[in-house]
Amino acid sequence: MGSMFRSEEVVLVQLFLPTAAAYTCVSQLGELGLVEFRDLNASVSAFQRRFVVDVRRCEEVEKTFTFLQGEMRWAGLALPLPEGVLLAPPPRDLLRIQEETDRLAQELRDVRGNQQALRAQLHQLQLHSAVLSQGHGHGSRLAATHTDASMERTPLLQAPGGPHQDLRVNFVAGAVEPHKAAALERLLWRACRGFLIASFRETEQQLEDPVTGEPATWMTFLISYWGEQIGQKIRKITDCFHCHVFPFAEQEEARLGALQQLQQQSQELQEVLGETERFLSQVLGRVQKLLPPWQVQIRKMKAVYLALNQCSVSTTHKCLIAEAWCATRDLPTLQQALQDSSSEAGVSAVVHRIPCRDMPPTLIRTNRFTASFQGIVDAYGVGRYQEVNPAPYTIITFPFLFAVMFGDVGHGLLMFLFALAMVLAENRPAVKAAQNEIWRTFFSGRYLLLLMGLFSVYTGFIYNECFSRATAIFPSGWSVAAMANQSGWSDAFLAEHPLLALDPNVTGVFLGPYPFGIDPVWSLAVNHLSFLNSFKMKMSVILGVTHMAFGVVLGVFNHTHFGQWHRLLLETLPELVFLLGLFGYLVFLVVYKWLRLTAADAASAPSILIHFINMFLFSRSATNRSLFSGQEVVQSALVVLALATVPILLLGTPLFLRRQHRHHSRRRQLVEDEDRTGLLDASDVSVASQGLDEEKAECPGGQEEAEFVPSEVFMHQAIHTIEFCLGCISNTASYLRLWALSLAHAQLSEVLWAMVMRVGLGLSDKLGVAAVVLVPVFAAFAVMTVAILLVMEGLSAFLHALRLHWVEFQNKFYSGTGYKLSPFTFAAEDE
Description:
It is built from 25 helices and eleven strands. It is of the alpha+beta class. The strands form three sheets. Strands 1, 2, 9, 10 and 11 form a five-stranded antiparallel sheet that branches. It has a four-stranded antiparallel sheet with strand order 4-7-3-8, with helices on both faces. Strands 5-6 form a two-stranded antiparallel sheet. The radius of gyration is 44 Å and the shape is flat.
């Protein structure tokens, strides 16, 4: 955990991997997750790299995997998690996996195709059987209709013959989807002008759809018509509606025979379909067993080839050269892993550090407790390499500032119990596998919520608030009886004065401060809100100035670590003098007034606000007495001292850097003159350059000289000075949000109690009625407490605490301009 305060030392290493063992070495590095590879082929297209063919083969296999996964989802089967640790397979296994995968995919395609064909055929047979089985009813009605119509239209005398004497009644039978039946019937009647008789009936049993597998109802129809042209129209219309048309015999005996034959074919087809589905389940079982480990292995293999594509090839084509970032503490593990992986090749892989002028990535190791706090810092910006990390201090300051705005024992306890339940259940598979985004957000910050709830309970005890109600844990420090006995309160006095004041100057009225937190008697006072406003506002200023001063002090560790000693005198010291000389003095006045003045001096107590205003105006107020002797002189001296630090802060660093740059330029010119005279031989030059490289390797990116541009340096320092000086004023005022949010939370809790619970408690004096009424009232109170006070108010306090850390605290010392170390690892592939 030592790396929590500052990022670990990261160096650039060069790996020489034998060609025969390169795949094995990189695979082992992926299992360990120690290094981040640099792309040495950035100028080479992705299609021209050495292992692009292998990557394409892996992608082809992954496409087949996608097809197999789709078949598994279609069958309603879930893929199990792979068991154990699966290593990246050897390259020769890729062909075997690809062949077996293609064979399984082809079997699934064939079996699935046969199943679909058999289901479609069975569906046709079932529809045909339904049409024939219901054809008797259709035929009876049609025959009756035809008989009645013919008897009405039969002439009394037989016609000797005519052009229509050979016409006969024809039938068209089939099935159509129910939602198309009405439109079909309407179109048939209009197109054929009534020269037909159509009958539609719904099937008695639902038939399984061959595509979706869901049961569906069909409409069978039987159409009788006269004339070949009418028949052609009917067939075209049924084709347009995608109707299933089947042959329909005129004789009932022929229809019964055809129906028996269809039922026998359906029974045989169902047996064949059952065997097909059993074979399909066997194939899916093999896929369910083999696919999960294959997916992990192919993903790892593809990742290895993509990493190898970032390596360059040596001139002899006998090894691959890679560059990677690695933590210094992991170098022995890296060397050992490469030796073990390349032992079979006969040539050991080589690792050595190389100098680099680029800024290394930032590596801060976290655990399940510190990960959420580090995430808060990284959301603002990843720290520069070996910059002071604010996360260890955020573990305390963030929950505390949140609790200052959210202080309530009851609300904090509910939040603490909710977080504690997540912490206790964090190892359960069902909890880890939950996919709800809101739940995963809460679960990832469970330890943060735990501390936020715990600190809220602590500040709730200080405020003496539990669901907006005060609790008398200790005896009150105020005595009403002593005030009543010594003040002579009579019945007439009490009748004329509904509000009574407790005078702490009266003997026995004020017995001493409350042991912990605010005295519960203040909850009964009319000036309760004024008292809390004064207390919380001053507390916010004290916490804010302390927090900002701590941020400035943390900048000292950055300057000393990077060897920027001039910044201690030219930046950090002026910043502390400016901040503490003005706002630190304000904090001193608040604390001094608390400790120096007593209740007897309350009537003539001076105003700190007026003193602070007079401090900047270099004036004094006759009606506002001084807190201590010589206060005006001290205030004037502090203002002058603070103003004197502004030009130091503005010009100190640029002038020093300019002088340093000139000094280095002169030294460089002298060295170049000596080189021209030949005082240094070639060997000395090489030794000196080698020593310089080693120094840069020890401190990568920190000692090289950048081009000095005076205008940019002055502009940057001017922006920093203006931001700090104005920020001290605005940031101090920004910390008053602690007072505002705390007041809002307390008043909202009070309103919720008064509008819900107090009304429910006063509805009835009878015990039974009150118990029945309180059930829905308490349910409403609980729901609104969780929804409004815990969720909405908690989110508001969280965002304000986040702003105080990002803007008011971290900008005093934290740049956040780095980038994370993203090691090459298979951890994501295993998941």
